[in-house]
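Input sequence (446 aa), recorded before submission:
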Amino acid sequence: MTKYDFDLFVIGAGSGGVRASRIAAGHGARVAVAEEYRVGGTCVIRGCVPKKLLVYGAHFAEDLDDARRFGWTLEGRRFDWATLRDNVLAEVDRLNGLYQTTLDNNKVTTLLGHARLLDAHHVEVDGTRYSARTILIATGARPFVPDVPGAEHGITSNEVFHLPELPRRMVIAGAGYIATEFAGVFHELGTDVTLINRSDTILRGWEPALADRLLTISTAKGISFKLNCKLERVEQTDAGLVLHFVDGKTIETDVLMWALGRVPNIEGLGLDAAGVALNEKGAIAVDGENRTNVPSIFAVGDVTDRVQLTPVAIREGHAFADTQFGNKPWTVDYRAIPSAVFSNPPLGSVGMTEAEARNAYGQVRVFTSDFRPMKNVLAGRNERALYKLVVDASTDRVVGAHMIGPDAPEILQAVAIAVKAGLTKAHFDDTMALHPTMSEELVLMR
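Predicted structure, token format:
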């Protein structure tokens, strides 16, 4: 029998890689994980966690404005970007340490450096060769930067947390969740924000009614949108950046942020040497058990480009470890995955959009509640929340739930349980309302 250095070698210590390492080690496997940046991955280090902390910080701008209507007098309010930035980065450092402690406590060997495959059972990390019975690739994804002249003058979500000062002007290229989230954050902090996009829609793939509502509210707040435009080149000047569009128009800005989606991190991994195949999207191709075409090599998370969400990568890593090392085989169910956009206001969604449900079931019933949250009424804000339930007419089963408004993601998590469980509209109707709350609208739609 061949003797290997490790039972499992994981490339990438992000959400999926850390979970797989910990669970496999708990099943008795000898595990090593290689990480070339920082343990914790995109979500913890330069993604959803620090982003959400910036969202919290930015919300104080409107909360302080609204406080006057609730009887509070606040003198001398002032925002300091460096304080928020440094406190967020300190929290990132703390979480990085906790993730490393988790690996250490589970006796996982951490190798800091760039790993590449040599063949189906060997990996090299900065010149040192290791053998493993099983290899897991969990290298995640990175922001896409377009091939336009001057693109290097822009930043991505990787660098935005380290800005030396709050920009006076910012242009964000893109219209997905990352673009709309950072547009809301920096606008609330006082930056003049413009969002540019090649198409005429934002949040493609989301329930259109929610995307339209966010566009309307964001425009009213003062965020500028330049849609149906194509960027030709980026010019750096003494005063900042000048964006040149194919229609001859220009925009001047201090910071350009690329938020055009994410691409799998496959470069420099030695996939060719090991014979690992890619799919049509340029991601690592895997089957339902996360196995590549090479029997000893698996992959989970964003590098497979199935569903680019942290909880999905964690589930995939857990399922892989239980199946391969714990004699407890199971696979991830990708149906009814809840998701959120932490824009201002935020969105939450689970299940099918109305259009998807009509294509799948033919006849559907749609219930909506369009209302002004109580807090907005007293604060004098005209922003309205929108909740939408999509129901399969033949079974009365709620197959989609979508909402935009204060705390929508927090409310949506509970609704996702009902949608995942296949509950019917009658179950919603039979549930007593919790008054006065925004969430009670979910059981009052008739």
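Checked by second reader. The mean pLDDT is 96.
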